[in-house]
Every structure is written in C-alpha cells, then in structure tokens.
Amino acid sequence: xGKDSEKDTDQNEEKPDISKPPESPLxxxxxxxxxxxxxxxxDVEDPGKAFAGVMGAELYLEACRLMEVVPVSHFAQNLTKPxxxxxxxxxxxxxxxxxxxxLVSNATVTHLELEDNHILAEGAKCIAEMLRxxxxxxELNISNNHLDTEGAEAIASLLLENASYLHTLQLSGNxxxxxxxxxxxxxxxxxxxxxxLDLSHNxxxxxxxxxxxxxxxxxxxxxxxxxxxNHLRRKGTVAFGTGLKGNAALKILNLSWNxxxxxxxxxxxxxxxxxxVLIHLDISNNQINNEGAKKICKGLKVNGTLKVLKMxxxxxxxxxxxxxxxxVRKNPNSVMEEINISNVLVNETFIKLLELAYQxxxxxxxxxxxxxxxxxxxxxxxxxxxxxxxxxxxxxNLRLWDFFRxxxxxxxxxxxxxxxRRAMMQQSNIQLDRVQIAELVRKLDQNQTxxxxxxxxxxxxxxxxxxxxxxxxxV
Length: 475
Prior knowledge:
Layout: H1 2-13, H2 28-36, H3 47-50, H4 56-67, H5 73-77, E1 83-85, H6 92-103, E2 111-113, H7 120-133, E3 139-141, H8 148-160, E4 168-170, H9 178-190, E5 196-198, H10 206-218, E6 224-226, H11 233-246, E7 252-254, H12 261-274, E8 280-282, H13 290-300, E9 308-310, H14 318-330, E10 338-341, H15 348-360, E11 365-368, H16 385-395, H17 400-407, E12 414-416, H18 417-425, H19 434-444, E13 451-453, H20 457-462, H21 467-474
Parallel strand pairs: 1-2, 2-3, 3-4, 4-5, 5-6, 6-7, 7-8, 8-9, 9-10, 10-11
Antiparallel strand pairs: 12-13
Helix pairs in contact: 4-6, 6-7, 7-8, 8-9, 9-10, 10-11, 11-12, 12-13, 13-14, 14-15, 16-21, 18-19
C-alpha cells in the first residue's frame, strides 16, 4: 500500500500544471516539453539549444526553474570545486535531474555524494545520461536511493558501454536483487573503468553470488569490492570463490554478514591457495566455526599476498585462533599484518604462541578478546607512548619530523601501519611494547586507513615548532 501511494505521488509530481509554465528566458515550448518529459532523460528539448550560453550555477538555477524544484545553494556555490556532498538533501528524481543537467558540461567536480535522496530509478537514469557526457566525475555515491532493478539497469548500461570515467561507484542499500545482479555482472565483465565498487546492504542471494563470481573470473580492473550485508550464503560464496581463483585484479574484498558458513570458508580457502593478488579479506560475522577456520588455514599456509584477515564475531574458540596464528607462523612466504578475531577468548598458551610469532614477524598484529583467567586482574599500566618518544627527542635535540622521516623509507610522508609497527618494534633507543605501539597507531591512524600520514608536520618543521608543542597535539 505504501509503495502504491509513493508511485501515485511520483506520478502526480510528473504532471505539473503546464498551463502556467514557470517564468523563464527559454521558449514556452521548451519549458512545456521539459515538464512533460521526453525521449532522453536529460532532454528538456535539446539541452544544447535550451541552455545555449548558460553555464555553471546559472544553468543549475534555470534547470531548477524548469523542474519546479527548490535549488540547493550548497550545490550552486560549489560547482567550481572538486568535491560536492549532497547526502540527505531530499532531492528526489526532479532535484537530481536539475543537478544532472548542470553537470553535463562541468569540468571541475570529480567527486559527488548523493546518498539518501530518494532519487529512484528515474533519477538513476538522469545520472547515467549525464555521465555519458561528463568527462570529470571520477567518484560517485548514490547509495540508499531506492534504485531497484530499473535503476540498476540504467547504471549497468552505462558500465557496459564504458561510457563514463568513473573509477569509484557506491550503490549500497538500493534493494538490488537477482535481476540487478545479472545486469550488473554482465556489465562488469566488459567494464575497464571502475576500480572500486560498493554493493553492500542489497539483496543478492546465492544466485547473485554465482553471477558475480562469474564476473570476477573475467573482470581485470576491479580492485575493491564490498558485498557485505547481502545473502550470498554457502552456495553463493562457493561460486564466488571459484571466480576469485582466476581473478588477477581484486585487492580488497568484504564478504562480512553473508552467512557463508564453513562451506563458504572452504571455497575461499581454495581461492587463497592460488590467488596472488588479494591483500585484504573481511569475512566477519559469517557463522564460521573452528572447522571453517581450519579450512581457511589451509589457504593461509601457502598464500603469499594476503595482509589483512578479518574474522571477528564468528563462532571461533581459542582452538581456531591458535590454528590461524600457527598457519601464518609456519608459512615462510606469509606477509600477514593483521588478523582480527576480536571476540575470541584466548588463554595463556595462545599468548605464548603469539609471542613466538611476533619474534619473527614484528609487523603482525593479532586482535583478540580477553585472556582467560586474567579478566579480573588489574591491567598493567603503560607509559604514554607519545611522551616516551618526546623524552627521547628532547634528549637528542631532534624534531618529530626527523623521527618520522627516518622511518619513512619511500620518503612520501605516508608510512604503512605495518611498516610503522615493525620500525617501532625494532627501535633500540625507544623502548615501547606492543600495547603502547597499538595505542600509538590508533592515535596516528584514527580513520583506520592503514597509513600513518605525517605530511602535516612538514609545515611545522618549516616553522621550527617546538617538539613539546608537536607532541601535545598528538597526545
């Protein structure tokens, strides 16, 4: 009933009183045709003629007049900037159509956020038409917009033709089901532009997993794929794992919250044995128990590329956790940097095994739950890591910039967290334990990007800012 009323409302909105067209320098015929619709989703009559000589904010305001929508001042004021965020603005199909018209010839906006605007399939069609002409947009977020299958088809057609320059596309929460999976999978088999795709919080089931798995075996461009919060389950993940075996591009994969179970874990383990590209795998919250963890371990024992494995909130016990750490420790080719099993209650035996692993792999960070029998103990107090570093720098008349610069082998002012952790563990002059280093990483990488970025210290270095002030800002 709700959906029917929404449709009725939309239909009513599409039939304004054309006997009183809005005031406009355009011809009455152009305005009338704009409000009634036309063959092309962006055609007001012919945008090239109707908006001849009109550009930027003026073009947007003119389009708003014709669409009979209230202009969004933030959009009009930022059309000359690379990033525009219009999330949660209640634009609707007509509002986004006006925005699309304004962006057809725009050459400055590279990142556009349009999440949660109820643009529907109609709005998706307008966006797709705009992207066929626009040459600057690289990142687009149209998540949570009720696009449904028809909207997916409009976006898929664009991707199939490689008709845009997008490399990052977020389509989360759009009620995409099997039909949408089919058209998107077909399109992505041929697409060579999109590198990052978010399809989380949709309704792909086992069939969707099969279709996307087939796509993965063919696609050569996609590097980041988020399929969390879908319904791939066991059969879907088995098919998906088959596609992952032959993939040579995907680096980051999120399959959390998909109920993949032990069968899905086994399929992914088989893929890990042969895949030499994937570096980050998230299979948290997937009903995987110790048996499934042991299957994953078979892949980890031979894999030489995976750096991050997230398996939190599964059904593992300390037995499965021990197997995971042991498999990484025994693999001489492993490059593992993080294993997240944060809900697992471990014991002293596990801690001893972990210490042995840390001796040969200082970059490794295993995130686990409480230690059995130690819950009631008063936690050991650790001196503030920043203050320890500050004391050393003061004693040696060094600056914080100098400290980071010495660790940064590439000299690009961005240090991978794993490299930073390893360097800190190997510091002979500054004695910090793992707890202190973990806290330090949390402060230096608050957004969990996996990178310690110290580029902001360059200006401080030029200004000769005292070490004490620099450190206080970080503490």
